[in-house]
Amino acid sequence: MTTVLVALGVNLGIAVLKALAGVVTGSAALLAEAGHSVADTTTEALLLTALRRSGRPADRRHPFGYGKERYFWSLLAAVSIFASGALFAFVEGVRALLGGPVDEPDSWVGYAVLGLAFVLEATSWAQAMRQVRAEAAAERRPILRHLRLVDDPTAKTVLLEDSAALLGLLLAFAGIGLHQLTGIWAFDGIASLAIGVLLAVVAYIMGRTNKGLLIGRQADPTLVRAIQRRLAQTPEVESVVDLLTMLTGTDRILLCAKLDFTDSLTAAELERACMRIDGELRDAFPDLDEIFLEPVPRNDPELRARVLARYGGALDGLRG
Question: Where does the Cation efflux protein transmembrane domain start and stop, copy by copy (predicted)?
Answer without folding.
Answer: 4-211
